[in-house]
Amino acid sequence: MTICRSEEGEVFMVKGAVPGDQIEARLFRRRKGVWTGQVEDILEPSPYRVDPPCRHFDHCGGCQWQNLDYSQQLKLKENGVKNVMKRIGGIETDKFHPILGCDPVYFYRNKLEFTFSHRRWFTEEEMQGGEIENREGLGFNRPGRFDMVLDIEECLLQPDPSNSIRNFVKKKALELGISFYNIRAQEGFLRNLIIRTTETGDLMVILVVHSDDHEKITPLLTAVQKEFPEITSLFYVINPKLNDSIFDLTPHLFAGNPYITEKLGDRTYRIGPKSFFQTNTRQAKLLYDEVIRLGDFDSDEIVYDLYCGLGSIGIYVADRVKKVIGVEEIDEAVDWAKINKEINQLPHCDFYAGDVREVLDTQFVEQHGRPDTVIVDPPRAGLHPDVTQFIKTLEPKKIIYVSCNPATQARDLSEWADQYMCREMQPVDMFPHTGHIENIALMIKK
What we know:
Blueprint: E1 2-5, E2 11-15, E3 22-31, E4 34-44, H1 57-60, H2 70-89, E5 93-96, E6 111-117, H3 124-128, E7 137-142, E8 145-151, H4 162-176, E9 190-197, E10 203-209, H5 214-227, E11 233-238, E12 251-256, E13 260-264, E14 267-271, H6 281-295, E15 302-306, H7 312-317, E16 323-328, H8 331-343, E17 349-353, H9 356-359, H10 362-368, E18 373-376, H11 385-394, E19 398-403, H12 406-414, E20 420-428, E21 438-445
Parallel strand pairs: 2-4, 5-20, 10-11, 15-16, 15-18, 16-17, 18-19
Antiparallel strand pairs: 1-2, 3-4, 6-7, 6-9, 7-8, 9-10, 11-12, 13-14, 19-21, 20-21
């Protein structure tokens, strides 16, 4: 989706266009002063337009910018961060560092989740080709269509054997006559397939099904295990709910280890089936190296790592400081954080479970000490106002804010602007060919 403006000042969001294109577009509707539309004809292509290598690009919607030269993607993202900081937060920084690009720009994800559907999306070519035999699909949800998936034969986001596993699971399930889920009717058996890979070579596969039927689960997963003996960890999850989230469900280990292992630098992390870990491992190391550079930690510092997940950032910086105190809402993530601190031999790291709003209080600070540095890496919604205010009362020397959503980051940074100045900012591209960007801000007490 490309945003453009007419000479009269009207704003258009046009699907299929890239910056620099001269096009004819069909407009659909105007909402809150913004038109949406679709490219009908490219009169003169942009010099930045490239041929997308993915066979599913025209229908998938997952990698919206594959048709835009990567150097231009980086410019758009860097400018996007600058714009939201100024427009939303009124934030100015002493040093805004150029965005750090990703290499490679394909096969960079360590986790993908695919959806089964009894009725897949049919492309225009298929519709014109006559009768369609195979109506089941395993792939990604179509944009704007919760009830249909685009069947994926090859995805360029995750390294092998991701594609081989997904295609085999679909083929074997059809051979066994196992039904694919109908989300509208809330019936059918196979719901989701999650594949996680690591730089160490470990491999986790999670099959999500609607009910506890081992006459279907066992033959399918046995076949997967036999076909892919390199699988380190094979799970299934029973999900009878209306939504696809598995975070409140119990994973059942079918074969292998209950975890996979990843390394960032000299740190080792065990990752469970429900653990959050940065989805781009190589860029995660780059991101955390920037946290260390910006933090410029002293050996006598106390560091709070809020929204710490399985402890990835806190553990990465731990050998540079006196103490790391992590807080995370998800109990299982904290369990893995405690395991990860042990295997990395970091007795001066402690991790606590609970909502940061509720855990972070005066008594907690008296117990663990007032932090010299606070690191926050919240969800896309950003920080709750109570958290921003309490951090303010702690008066740490430094706040390092790692964000996957610069818009909410800018909002939160503005809440500290009376006491803190933004010394440096570093955007990092974690997700090539998408509009998503990770950004680090270093706030220093005035």
